[in-house]
Design a protein that fits this description.
Heat Shock Protein 90
């Protein structure tokens, strides 16, 4: 029997909500029995994506909405993090390691690189002045007892 489950979460683009999002998604994914390293990777990726929404999408405005949808199907999870912020003018450039549009904030420019390296798939779509959506996928190896 293939396991299916889904959660949706929306919150204001306030930096205090980043840890809330990270912990909530990690708790949801815990039903897949990830290793501690896999769980740490998921938390890091959520932090990077949510922080991008807050800092870049809404430029630290605290009234924007960040949305997360997570779906479990079988041994895999899909996580979608989106905002309705300013969007990304040059997505190809933004995905380059070490590139940041906010050097004055001492940002490392590694957010997308981290997401790509910690997940099995990372798809980013963005439209200027409409927002950005990051879709992440990760496959876990489950024991037979968890699948039933």
């Amino acid at each position: 029997m293939r396991r299916k489950n889904r959660m949706e979460l929306t919150f204001l683009s306030q930096s205090v909500n980043e840890s809330f999002a990270r912990i909530t998604v990690a708790a949801f994914i815990s039903q897949l029995n990830p290793t501690m390293d896999e769980l740490a990777d998921i938390k890091t990726v959520i932090s990077e994506a949510v922080t991008n929404c807050i800092i870049h999408g809404y430029e630290n405005r605290e009234d924007g909405i960040v949305s997360i949808v997570a779906e479990i199907e079988g041994e895999s999870v899909m996580i979608e993090i989106s905002d309705r912020g300013r969007g990304i003018e040059n997505l190809e450039l933004a995905r380059q390691p070490m590139y940041t549009s906010k050097p004055e904030l001492e940002r490392s420019g590694m957010g997308f690189t981290i997401m790509e390296n910690f997940m099995d798939e990372c798809t980013v779509t963005s439209t200027p002045h409409e927002g950005t959506k990051v879709v992440l996928r990760k496959h876990f190896s489950l024991s037979e007892e968890l699948l039933n």
